[in-house]
Amino acid sequence: MHAFTSHMGRMTEQTQVSAYEADDNPLLAQWSGPFGVPAFGRIKPEHFRPAFARAFAAHAAEVAAIAGNAQAPTFANTIDALEASGEALARAVDLFHLLAGAHTNDAILAFERELAPLKAKHWDRILMDETLFGRIDGLYRMRDRLALSAEQRRVLERYHLKFTRAGAALDAPAKTRLADVNERLATLGTTFSQNVLADEQSYALVLDGEDDLAGLPDFVRAAARTAAEERGLAGKHAITISRSSVEPFLQFSTRRDLREKIFRAWIARGDGGGATDNKAIIAEMVALRAERARLLGYPSFAHYRLDDTMAKTPQAVRALLERVWAPGRRRAMADRDALQALVQAEGKNFALAPWDWRYYAEKLRKARCDIDEATIKPYLQLERIIEAAFYTANRLFGLTFERRDGVPVWHDDVRVWEVRDAVGRHRGLFFGDYFARTSKHSGAWMTALRDQERLRGDIHPLVVNVMNFSKAGEGEPTLLSFDDAKTLFHEFGHALHALLSDVTYPMIAGTNVLLDWSELPSQLFEHWLVKPRWNTSPRRSSISICISSPRPATASTSTASSRLNLRASACPRKSSCATDPPTSNTYSRAPATPRPITAICGRRCSMPTPSRRSRRPAISSMPASRRGCMMMSTPPAARATRPTSTPPFVGVCRRPTGCSGGGG
């Protein structure tokens, strides 16, 4: 282990941290803010290099002591010790990656490029250390005789698999090559991500005048005006290539030429040639991933990647995909034909293109189901959907959420809630960072600044949801699409997974589980968005549906009502049936049996119950991006009432790096 810290030389030489600088660096101190939150207001980009230099060196020394322990390996002096090591490094990594993803700048981006290979090298030195692996392997082989608890056994198994999959059992030449591959992949992955961000930051479709705005409803115009103002384009409108900006424009704009322009820019991120083009990076990454898999004894990267998941094999994944491919393709072709017919019915002769799909799908939905997305949008206010998510968590798990305004945050848009369980015990903090900005990567994800554990004390999690919704103008409510609302529920499901964690060891805390298993809680939680009986909270118009008057229960209106009922959204504040808004920032437990919708909003808001045949919207009238959710049936768990005592989601395996894209 004497060479273990050699890779820190370069960073230490660059740093030359004085005692004064160390004392003045908030990253080198314990987090002493409210609830143990870091002092974001004091953190500067120049603090990261000395903080990581110290953290890497401290962790290397801790691990060297564990590996060099002269005593026979035990669970306590090896596994417990490894779990307790690297606390400063974990803090630095979690905080840095939060800022690098959600609120970055040129200095952070530059250090991210420097950090990626150093971090890969640091972990390779640990995971490939022969002496350390020998201690873990010895414990693993005698695990049946160690009188371990179920949790300890799982942690030991995960450590052994983690080291094995990292190449601990390889010979020296293979380890050397694998370390080189990992270091290069870390650099390429960071470059890939930064290239996409650069393209997103540099592009905006500026709309100048009413002709460019043709067809856009008020909420799209308001968001575009805000986006333009953030870019110094006062008096204009701008469409960015954030999903929440692009999709409404593609859906409503009557300007086919502008729809094509923004669509091509959207799909060309990292594919436009020049310095930010990712094609060569992708080719090199694919080759290196294949080589890494072969070094570790797998026939392909897919086999390596899936071996540590529930799916296990590429064959199992392909079998699942093939079961849905044929019917999915048939439905997509039917959608295409219906949309093409609508184009021709308007007297136009162009072939349906990708930038036409959402525009004509909206028209077809209106014709078939009498659903107008622009009319529904006011019911999907961000504040009400957040409240709906909290209400559902309260009904399912007894959690309450109280706004905490004095907690440090990394951007003024970020909000914080304290989370308590049904008996009032503190369970952690939940941070919501909902709006798109140029300093944020695209997509939506859950992460944590701190995981739950009991090994080093009763430690509660700091859980973060990051979104990219288009922010409304000053004083206006931010309106979401149904996909946006589903994404919020999805990522909040991941957050609940972390908040409800109840284990001893960080290795298996929160979302540190098999990657495909980590999606189960979030996908289950999505279904509560579309569960009507959960969307009728007393005094909570935010999660009920108001319709001005009942309509005949014909097939078309039943389908429309069903689609409306899927919205789990708010009565607009100016609606005649809106109830009083909450009088405090605390969301507390509701009565066990919610009142019916007519008791909340009155008879005028009652809704015809869809017939069994028409409980779902006509999928053929929906854009392809929405079919995945709508084609999934509600799981059995979503049909059951809440049990008296609901067990938490307990982590069992590994930590995913987070979700990206539209909820994943």
Structure description:
The two termini are 39 Å apart. Among the domains are: 6-169, Orthogonal Bundle (Neurolysin, domain 3), CATH 1.10.1370.40; 377-639, Neurolysin, domain 3 (Orthogonal Bundle). The longest helix is centred in the middle third of the chain and has 32 residues, at 314-345. The protein has helices at 9-15, 19-24, 48-67, 75-84, 87-102, 106-127, 130-141, 150-165, 172-202, 218-230, 243-252, 256-267, 279-295, 301-307, 314-345, 354-369, 373-376, 382-397, 482-499, 515-529, 555-565, 597-601, 624-631, 636-639; strands at 205-207, 237-239, 400-403, 415-420, 426-435, 445-450, 462-469, 586-587. Mean pLDDT is 82; it is low at 1-20, 535-584 and 588-664. Helix 3 runs parallel beside helix 6, helix 3 (48-67) packs across helix 7 (130-141) and helix 6 packs antiparallel against helix 9 (172-202). By secondary structure, the chain is α+β, with helices and mostly antiparallel strands. It is built from 24 helices and 8 strands.
Characteristic key phrases:
8 strands; disordered N terminus; alpha+beta; Neurolysin, domain 3; 6-stranded mixed β-sheet; 664 residues; disordered C terminus
Outline the fold blueprint.
Elements: H1 9-15, H2 19-24, H3 48-67, H4 75-84, H5 87-102, H6 106-127, H7 130-141, H8 150-165, H9 172-202, E1 205-207, H10 218-230, E2 237-239, H11 243-252, H12 256-267, H13 279-295, H14 301-307, H15 314-345, H16 354-369, H17 373-376, H18 382-397, E3 400-403, E4 415-420, E5 426-435, E6 445-450, E7 462-469, H19 482-499, H20 515-529, H21 555-565, E8 586-587, H22 597-601, H23 624-631, H24 636-639
Helix pairs in contact: 1-3, 3-4, 3-5, 3-6, 3-7, 6-9, 7-8, 9-13, 11-12, 11-16, 13-14, 15-16, 18-19, 19-20
